[in-house]
Amino acid sequence: MKEIKWTGAKGEALTTSVQYPPVEQTNTYIGISTVKVSKSEWDSWKSFKCAVDHQNEENSVKVEKKPSIPKIILLREPKGNNQILFCTVRDFLPKEISVKWTKNGKDENGTTNWDAQKNGKTYSTLSLLEVPNSDWNSEAVYSCEVSHRGKTYTRIASKVPITVTLKQPRAKEIFQNQQAQLECVITGQDKTTVEKSQITWKIDGRTQTSNTTESAMSDGNVTTKTSTLTQTFDDWLTVKKVQCSAEGEDVSPVTQEIIVQKDGTEPKITIYIPAEQKGEKIILMCLVSSKVKQDYYIAWTDGKENSNEDYTDGITFPPEKTENGYSVISLYTTTKTKWESNHMFHCTVRHAGSKEVFNSSVSRALDFLNATLSLSCVQGDPEDDFSSLWSTTSTFICLFMFSISYSVIFSLHQMKKN
């Protein structure tokens, strides 16, 4: 083997090299050469070349100190009449770096920058920009631009660059397919920003890369990207926390999480119907309550109880604190025709961390409907209220206020039947 040669960044020969005799290993030879350079040269990011001429063919490799790419996070904190934007830059090497801010593409003055500080083997720095609420509310776009070793990295902040919504598992999938299916939905007006955003899932701190699917769609000026994570229900029973994060080249991470609330206390389930059944739709309300806060998965069936084919998701609201504990409301809409033909409707409930199933049923034909509590708690035209799901809120609040009285009537009737 011929001599191994070392050269500097300008092609000059390095005379501090040492070459060792070749070593035979499995019918081949290994040549080793080392070179000493000063720490100042190494820290100045000079490059060096190791080359060898073997069988009239030169092979070489470039040796240089590897830079550490900066990690950039843009944070916001409201303060009185202003918004404070923090651009944190961490774990970069070498020390030389520049940070600037722009507003709608134009340079922004009045920033506060900190000198880069040594943090272990790398450096970190911070830049701050104070923004008036009037500018922030105008949906101006602010950018933190970091330049390091000839490359520029950008993070964007605006009032609504993207929103991230993490949805609870669909009850229908849990009951019908024995799966927990979670959706992480990114929404924004900039189509490119939304589509290029990367969605990351974590379950109990561990990143999930399998059993996920993604889709994107645009509707007018709004673009939506959805990532779906699917787990078996057996696996879901052990989960404590789920996190979904969206991050892009120009977007700082936005994270949502679900803390799975599970206690195992048996819930109380009661179904209510509107006192005044006007129009062609009947809205049923399933009230699930317990003394402790826990997550409930509520699905409806129309007809056969515990049918494996006919589970339907209602509209389920987040848990609410009550005087005696917590309650969850789920709404189900059916037709007046079905109601008057004496269909049986079932509210089926599971609480997090358990496979146990609870049910409550209602039908027009049941005797206890004769004791339906009449309420006069509708504002305006009752028919208009029940024609729109969102305008029924006041009625459901009143139903909840009278739930204790209703439960007493139901219990008395059951005692009479027995």
UniProtKB/TrEMBL annotation:
Transmembrane segments: 389-412
Keyword set includes Transmembrane: yes
InterPro entries: Ig-like_dom, Ig-like_dom_sf, Ig-like_fold, Ig/MHC_CS, Ig_C1-set, Immune_Resp_Modulators
Domain (Ig-like): residue spans on this chain: 70-163, 176-255, 267-363
Name of this chain's protein: Ig-like domain-containing protein
Keyword hit for Endoplasmic reticulum: no
Record's keyword terms, sorted: Immunoglobulin domain, Membrane, Transmembrane, Transmembrane helix
Pfam name, any one: C1-set
